[in-house]
TrEMBL record:
Protein family membership: Belongs to the Orn/Lys/Arg decarboxylase class-II family. LysA subfamily.
Positions annotated to bind pyridoxal 5'-phosphate: 282, 324-327, 429
Entry's Gene Ontology BP terms: lysine biosynthetic process via diaminopimelate
Gene it is expressed from: lysA
Protein role: Specifically catalyzes the decarboxylation of meso-diaminopimelate (meso-DAP) to L-lysine.
InterPro entries the UniProt entry points to: Ala_racemase/Decarboxylase_C (IPR009006), DAP_deCOOHase_LysA (IPR002986), De-COase2_C (IPR022643), De-COase2_CS (IPR022657), De-COase2_N (IPR022644), De-COase2_pyr-phos_BS (IPR022653), Orn/DAP/Arg_de-COase (IPR000183), PLP-binding_barrel (IPR029066)
Species the sequence originates in: Kineosphaera limosa NBRC 100340
Enzyme Commission number: 4.1.1.20
Keyword Magnesium set for record: no
Pfam families per the UniProt record, alphabetical: Orn_Arg_deC_N, Orn_DAP_Arg_deC
Gene3D superfamilies reported for this sequence: Alanine racemase (3.20.20.10), Lyase, Ornithine Decarboxylase, Chain A, domain 1 (2.40.37.10)
Name of the protein described by the UniProt record: Diaminopimelate decarboxylase
Molecular function terms from GO: diaminopimelate decarboxylase activity; pyridoxal phosphate binding
Pathway: Amino-acid biosynthesis; L-lysine biosynthesis via DAP pathway; L-lysine from DL-2,6-diaminopimelate: step 1/1
Amino acid sequence: MRAHEAGALHAEGYGGPPQWLPYPRNVNDLLPMLWPSSVRRDERGRLQVAGVDAVTLAAQFGTPAYVVDEDDFRARARGFRDAMNGAFSHGADVYYAGKAFLCTAVATWIAQEGLCLDVCSGGELAVAMRAGVPGARVGLHGNNKSAAEIEAALIYGVGRLVLDSFDEIDRVAAIAASLGVVAPVMIRVTTGVEAHTHEFIATAHEDQKFGFSLAGGQAYQAAERVLAESGAMRLLGFHSHIGSQIFDTAGFEVAARRVLDLHGRVEKENGVRLPELDLGGGFGIAYTSEHHPRTPEQLAGDMAAIVARECAAQDVAVPRVSIEPGRAIAGPSTFTLYAVGTVKEVELGGGASRAYVSVDGGMSDNVRTALYAADYSCTMAGRVSDAAPMLSRVVGKHCESGDIVVMDEYLPADVRPGDLIAVPGTGAYCRALSSQYNHVPRPPVIAVRDGVARVIVRRETIEDILALDAL
Ligand SMILES: *Cc1c(COP(=O)(O)O)cnc(C)c1O
């Protein structure tokens, strides 16, 4: 079976809890692996992050709000940096994939922690520039970069452009020549490996929009084209990214083997040295108790072993390796804080029922549940309760029945309007994929560190939304 981006689709849909959701021993307990490291319950039973409790955060900043534990975010970034540098004796680079979540403060944290930054549009590049991330530490991705985006990146002096098509090779060569610069480039390779969550598929061909195919020989041809443009482009090496929310390292292994085979052939047959290799991102995180992510040390160790083995087998020098984690840095550092507006018990037949708990946000601030049938968990954040656990579904305020935030979770049976609910693991692809659906203004992002909370992205207002409308 092909797994979904964020796990197998719910097979039954109605009825009891999914297999992975155990009946809780204590409905107030937190599962530490789902939360930022500083999160705990204080003596009043309130959820607390970096010393600030959820009731205080809600009173000060309103709900819904994304709350990020700044030290946790920074520690995850450093964790990848240190693990990669530990595993690769000649050093390695970690590019934070800004598309997971980017704002000026986050770009600053990434630069301060010694990481590089991956951007995939002129907008993301503008954030990197505003935060002062040095150009040499920025990489530009995208399958359809505009001439303006390419020009802005070259003028800023980005460390790499990742090329995605023959049209783009011509475009970058022309723009670099007109600017009188040599563009440092990588070639994105489609390895025929597609990985999602627990499974991967290795094929000869891959029917998707990104990259140059390996099997069809296009990746090799792209390298020859770039090498022929040596006055305008410098080929750093190849890039491979195989999917997202991956737990199974076998997919990375097959992809790395395939791309290193190409790397070795291009080096030998063209008499060149390719100094770099990028193995992409996609490292899975825990959204619920069903997920068991590997540590950065395990991932980096596996990668170093594969790269060393393949380079030795082909008798080529080990290139400088980079990776691009997005979700694994941003995701677990953040939770979304909502307020409950209504609680409704819905009969499912056969005596079973489910509580529908409506919160003041929804698919506009977290579309992953609706888009990918992603699983999340949640807890009451403003108090603890002695009430029995009740199977619940946390839904939003939007005009869609698919507007679900948490598909299945046990909440105490006395959950009521005014209660606070916190959903962990919302730092990646939530704010980044947010919308103004139903003209619901987007929540702020609040960073908490050492007992101090501050706004790093302010709440959108109705005025912000109306400001775009012409009269
Ligand atoms: C999305 C993406 C990433 C980051 O993926 P995560 O699952 O967030 O780690 C890295 N590289 C490329 C090219 C991407 O498209």
